[in-house]
């Protein structure tokens, strides 16, 4: 029998010593009321919360779990490096080996700089673009997420208008809108951030149009501005190379994180020789950026990315999940918008403007052992099996049936009411 007594007690203790009880994207403040906040164990594709409840995890720690929690070969690499040293007065040789591995795998990359978070990588990209020709204007797609530093946080409390004074916004996948933003920037156009695909929360996911991507590249070249692809969320889930390389477009800079160390804290900025001088002119650092253990984990993760069929497997599993879930929804009388790449699914209900069905569905599934999100894209990892998907579908059948039987009484979530258009 599912219960959350231990987690509730931990949340109460946390509220006394942590603002709001938790911070950032892993806060469950926007999730259904009974969602557990704390977990004690993870293995493969499963999580166990503080009450011992077991979940099939479709969030993968919001992305870092690519190969499976505690993947044995990655864990062995971690332990080997731990015996040698981790955070030392200087980096280990593994830093050079990792940079060599990445520049050997990512078509556009000639160099690498390592850090800890995706937000650090995107902020490095921003200042590198500005340093390239001494310009200020950075172009961003409306609603796109590129981290939580003052220039890009989605919740700007405590920030200043000056933090965003030189940002110009355009519509994703709209080359005319982008060209208008470039005109607005004029001679001060430094660079543009591009997402691998539109993966905003609370909305359908949209893949990039090849003509749009090529147009962005061409316009950047015409203005000697840097094109930045933010791969932090999607990196290595769509391709073994950079995602836009699949549509024939190479950026000047790319930002990576999440899966890079299969859960170890490491991110990086990659760049081409055009951007090398600018990257070498900025000062960026962090005492833990040079830690050897996450680099060893990343080096082994990259080997498995190169040498195994992980990508084909997550595509196969993701396709199975999408096709079967949409079919199942129809059988229970619901329409689903299951959008984005099959390896990073976004599941939203048709005719659900206040997300009441999505929240009830996720809450019921969670109580029966499947961790799904009602508003964020999810992730498939290489530890998932067809048997896991069959089990997940048994759980989602319960959730669909619950909504069907209680359709008239399902209430919208008060947690997101303030976020919805009035």
CATH topology of the largest domain: Aspartate Aminotransferase, domain 2
Sketch the topology as an H/E string, one letter per element.
HEEEHHEHEEHEHEEEHHHEEHEHH
Ranges with pLDDT <50 over ≥5 residues? none
Class of secondary structure makeup: alpha/beta
Report the total helices. 12
Multimerization status? single chain
Calculate the mean pLDDT score and round it. 96
What number of structural domains do the residues give? 2
GO molecular function: transaminase activity
Protein name: Aminotransferase class III-fold pyridoxal phosphate-dependent enzyme
Family: Belongs to the class-III pyridoxal-phosphate-dependent aminotransferase family.
Keywords: Aminotransferase, Pyridoxal phosphate, Transferase
Structural write-up:
It is a single chain. The chain is α/β, with parallel strands linked by helices. It folds into 2 domains: 5-62 and 309-417, Aspartate Aminotransferase, domain 1, CATH 3.90.1150; 72-307, Type I PLP-dependent aspartate aminotransferase-like (Major domain) (Aspartate Aminotransferase, domain 2). 38% of the residues lie in helices and 14% in strands. Strands 4-10-9-8-7-5-6 form a 7-stranded mixed β-sheet, sandwiched between helices. It has a 4-stranded mixed β-sheet with strand order 1-2-3-13. A two-stranded antiparallel sheet has the order 11-12. Helix 3 runs parallel beside helix 8, helix 5 (175-185) runs parallel beside helix 6 and helix 9 runs parallel beside helix 11 (386-406). The chain is globular. GO terms for molecular function: transaminase activity. InterPro entries: Aminotrans_3, Aminotrans_3_PPA_site, PyrdxlP-dep_Trfase, PyrdxlP-dep_Trfase_major, PyrdxlP-dep_Trfase_small.
């Amino acid at each position: 029998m599912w219960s959350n007594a231990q987690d509730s007690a931990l949340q109460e203790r946390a509220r006394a010593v942590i603002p709001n009880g938790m911070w950032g994207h892993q806060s469950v403040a926007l999730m259904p009321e009974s969602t557990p906040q704390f977990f004690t164990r993870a293995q493969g594709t499963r999580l166990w919360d503080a009450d011992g409840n077991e979940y099939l995890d479709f969030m993968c720690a919001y992305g870092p779990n690519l190969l499976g929690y505690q993947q044995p070969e990655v864990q062995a690499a971690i332990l080997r490096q731990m015996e040698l040293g981790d955070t030392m007065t200087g980096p280990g040789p593994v830093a050079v080996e990792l940079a060599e591995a990445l520049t050997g795998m990512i078509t556009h990359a000639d160099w690498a700089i390592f850090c800890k978070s995706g937000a650090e990588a995107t902020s490095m990209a921003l200042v590198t673009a500005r340093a390239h020709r001494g310009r200020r204007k950075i172009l961003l797609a409306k609603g796109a997420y590129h981290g939580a530093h003052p220039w890009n946080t989605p919740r700007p409390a405590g920030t200043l208008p000056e933090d965003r004074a030189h940002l110009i916004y355009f519509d994703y996948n709209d080359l005319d809108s982008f060209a208008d933003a470039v005109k607005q920037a004029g001679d001060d156009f430094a660079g543009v951030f591009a997402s691998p695909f539109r993966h905003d929360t609370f909305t359908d996911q949209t893949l990039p149009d090849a003509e749009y991507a090529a147009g962005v590249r061409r316009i950047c070249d015409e203005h000697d501005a840097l094109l930045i692809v933010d791969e932090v969320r999607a990196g290595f889930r769509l391709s073994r190379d950079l995602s836009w390389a699949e549509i024939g477009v190479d950026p000047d800079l790319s930002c990576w994180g999440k899966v890079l160390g299969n859960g170890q804290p490491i991110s990086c900025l990659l760049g081409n020789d055009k951007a090398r001088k600018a990257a070498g002119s900025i000062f960026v650092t962090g005492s833990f950026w040079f830690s050897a253990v996450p680099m060893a984990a990343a080096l082994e993760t990259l080997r498995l990315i190169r040498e195994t069929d992980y990508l084909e497997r997550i595509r196969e599993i993701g396709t199975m999940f999408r096709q079967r879930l949409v079919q199942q929804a129809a059988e229970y009388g619901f329409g689903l918008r299951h959008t984005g790449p099959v390896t990073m699914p976004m599941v939203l209900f048709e005719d659900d403007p206040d997300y009441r069905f999505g929240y009830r569905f996720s809450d019921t599934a969670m109580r029966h052992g499947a961790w799904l999100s009602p508003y964020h894209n999810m992730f498939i990892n290489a530890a998932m099996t067809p048997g896991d998907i069959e089990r997940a579908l048994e759980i989602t059948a319960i959730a669909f049936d619950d909504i069907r039987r209680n359709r008239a009484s399902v209430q919208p979530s008060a947690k997101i009411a303030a976020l919805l258009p009035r």
